């Protein structure tokens, strides 16, 4: 990595610089903040090791400046021993990590390795984002959570190879989207992407669907038909729900993959096909192999590389941007989310993952009366799902109470007398509760 060291203590500076050079890094050393900034402006620094206490500019001031010049730069602040609150402050300024003096070199190396990985992930993700932005067919992928950044970085790396990739993940996690992205990032983005849903094709038509048929091959085969393999030639064949493939077809598919040749139904002639194969499943194929429902040799063929998509509940950081994404797509008039609605949506556990979130937004936008989405507009299971956060009884009761208050106010057009009546409480108690939960009428 290209590393900048800023430290006013020449001994410490030389020690660190010498050590890191030996590890194969490109090191630039500066004796103060001004010199550090000068170097930063002309060298492609990826990581800055900044001593906090330097005459003139302090380490955190240098950090602020270099972050302004390049937000992607990584930084480790070196602080006096025991300066914990300092550490908290510099992390807020955008440092990735901090080390206490005297610097433990083994620890320093570990931290650098970790940051190196993050730098690589970021570089991959930037490449993905650029490709997506320049794609001819619109494709939009939200994923700033660490879990998705890792996934996108992996996707970027598997995309170049000719090997088959098995994409697995729960229903609605975005497997098809990722398959399209792999195709887009691959060597032949303009070649066809052909999708076959293995669960949707009747068994007796499958062979012809995959490999094609000759005219007259069977009753009803009135014309010659090119199968998916042929249509995807030099492009990508996406076998969706591959776990549902019947055993007889598993063997035929395996043969096609091994020999890179196919035969149309009713023909003797073999056709060479060079098709990249991607497969997706929400089932545990390993387990299906163990029970004999899926051929192990086919499993290994398909899973040369594999991409696991994390369920949405393991990347809640993405929920707000996904909501925004779907609101922009589906709102017919300007609509915004009440803070407590967002709160509910972020906590919900999403057994149906991103697709479920998409449907929830679509549905709530359709049913909402005002220009603000209230918790009452959300489906029942989202409003009452507390499994994500099992909380204390009081917390759960509070959440329920708050929901009931909001629903009553909504139904009575925020006329407090009516809402209190509907809830069977006095207006005074209603006002007290509104104050307690900070509920105010949203301005329209
Ligand atoms: N990261 C994401 N960013 C934006 N939209 C997404 C993302 N992931 C999924 N979606 C959207 O969610 C919906 C479901 O995604 P997709 O069909 O790819 O899931 P899947 O894993 O193939 O689901 P299934 O297992 O049910 O086939 C699609 O409308 C897709 O565009
Ligand atoms: Mg799918």
Task: Present the secondary structure layout.
Layout: E1 2-6, H1 10-22, E2 26-30, H2 33-42, E3 47-51, H3 59-69, E4 74-79, H4 84-92, E5 97-100, H5 105-133, H6 146-159, E6 165-168, H7 175-185, E7 193-197, H8 203-211, E8 212-213, E9 225-226, H9 228-231, E10 236-240, H10 247-259, E11 261-263, E12 270-272, E13 276-281, H11 285-290, H12 296-302, E14 305-308, H13 319-330, E15 336-337, H14 339-347, H15 353-367, E16 372-373, H16 380-384, H17 393-411, H18 416-423, H19 427-437
Parallel strand pairs: 1-2, 1-3, 3-4, 4-5, 6-13, 6-14, 7-10, 10-13, 15-16
Antiparallel strand pairs: 8-9, 11-12
Helix pairs in contact: 2-3, 5-6, 6-7, 13-15, 17-18, 18-19
The chain binds adenosine-5'-triphosphate and magnesium ion (MG).
Magnesium ion is lined by residues 175-176, 240.
